[in-house]
Amino acid sequence: MTESINPTTGKPNKSYSSHTKIEIDDKVDQTYNAWDSWRQTSFAERSVMMRNAGRALRNRKDELANLMAIEMGKPLKGGVAEIEKCADACSFYADNAKRFLRDEPVKTDAGKSYISYQPLGVILAVMPWNFPFWQVFRFLAPCLMAGNCGILKHASNVPGCALAIEDIIKKAGFPPFVFQTLLIDSKSVNAVIENSKISAVTLTGSVEAGKKIAEKAGSVLKKTVLELGGSDAYIVLEDADLDLAAETCVNSRLINSGQSCIAAKRFIVMEKVGKKFIELFKDKMSAKVVGDPLNDKTDVGPLARLDLRDELHKQVEGSIQKGAICILGGKIEPGTHAFYPPTILTNVKKGMPAYDEELFGPVASIILAMNENEAINIANDTVFGLGAAIFSRDIVKAEEIAAKRLQAGSCFVNSLVKSDPRLPFGGIKNSGYGRELAAFGIREFVNIKTVYVK
User: Fold this and answer.
1) Are 406 and 388 in contact (CB under 8 A)?
2) Counting CB atoms within 10 angstroms of each CB, which of 107, 113, 391, 440 has the fewest?
3) Eight-state DSSP code of residue 300
4) DSSP string of 169-223, one letter each residue
5) 135 φ, ψ to 5°?
6) Residue 241: in which H helix or E strand, if any?
7) CATH of 232-413, one of 3.40.1190.20, 3.40.309.10, 3.40.1370.10, 3.40.50.450
8) For residues 350 and 323, what is the distance between their CA atoms, to the nearest angstrom?
9) Mind listing the pLDDT tens digit for each residue in 391-439?
10) CA–CA separation, 309 vs 316, rounded Å?
11) Fold of 2-228+429-453
12) Are 126 and 158 in contact (CB under 8 A)?
């Protein structure tokens, strides 16, 4: 049995029957059998259905935002924006998949030789709760447009979102079983990976989850794409527009109530402007509205589960015990269930959880640096490598640092780091491997085939 719990109240939303071993095998069989005809459809046919899915998302955005609010606590305006982004991804791949996967001629000694991109088969997606629609659609849109089929194992606390995605795909006109949802726990995933009718696996989640999936998939020689955690560093140089930097940094730290792999986590500020930046940062963070995610004025809702709130608080307290200074928040109010207040820690040093670990919630770590080189070294001094940003009025210098010196999959200048269907997304080091989105994402799960005609 899978139960959805409202993180705002702690009360159950709805219970769902988990799929049995027989039902899991049947669903994988159905999807595999559907692939034979689906891969033979034209890009034009797939595009019609994908655009239908995008329209369905937009038509149901208020309903789906409400569902996210009660299942994992996302404030309504964030939920609506997430659904709009999913619809954009559908349109993007409907428009561009054929171009991304067209044959590429190569001159050789043959009469004709070229590279052909062919679908692999059924792709298993193991997805997290924090962006319950976007994480799925950034896999699903390119997967289906490439001629693959999909099986979704979603996070256990968002079963309603998982089933809503399946419903959208069905009603968009896709053939039966091209995409299906499995309501199963994490212990059942290995058996699905081992199924010979699964061709590859993609996961967004924790480092530990990624290691387990990669190990199992590797044991049966199946490709994986992993998007894991992050501890994104935002560098604020002396010549930065401090008001812009503080506003952008706060907004990034509080995306999805701080529960985003690609949210800003560590703020590395030049000592000369540290005091002013901290004042601005605190003022802007204090102004954010914490409350019921069903209220459209709320900026910060609860964390998705009570255990996640408790783990975050443990990291905050551990950092304070080692010398960090809490200048905002840091205390759990009685009767607030999974809520955690926007929190700022200063005097953060290496060896503290706030420096070394990913803090998955509305907690900001501020680290002062003497100079530009020290700031870059601190930014790179992490096991993660998902995103990073730098703020400076010297665009040429900032771009050079972003492009060549910061160790991350996405580096932004004077802007918060975000994913975009037009740009590849993914990380290095413990943030994973492979890429989603853009042409790179749709080519991850295809057979890059050489065709040689003498």
Assistant:
1) yes
2) 107
3) B
4) HHHTTPPTTSEEEE---GGGHHHHHHSTT--EEEEES-HHHHHHHHHHHHHTT-E
5) -60, -35
6) none
7) 3.40.309.10
8) 11
9) 999 999 999 999 999 999 999 999 999 999 999 999 999 999 999 999 9
10) 11
11) Aldehyde Dehydrogenase; Chain A, domain 1 (3.40.605)
12) no
Dig out the tokens for 316 from the structure: 């905050």
- Of the candidates 227, 358, 436, 444, the residue annotated as catalytic is 227
Q: Is 247 a catalytic residue?
A: no
The catalytic position among 143, 149, 261, 326 is: 261
Q: Which pair of structure tokens corresponds to residue 308?
A: 């996640």
The alpha carbon of residue 47 and the mean position of all alpha carbons in its chain are separated, in whole angstroms, by 24
Instruction: Give me the torsion for CA of 48, 52, 55, 61, rounded to 10°.
Output: -150
User: How many angstroms separate the CA atoms of 428 and 388, rounded?
Assistant: 12
Q: Is 411 a catalytic residue?
A: no
Structure tokens at 136: 């799925």
Where is 259: in which H helix or E strand?
Answer: none
pLDDT tens by residue, 367-392: 999 999 999 999 999 999 999 999 99
Cross-strand pairs, 451: 114
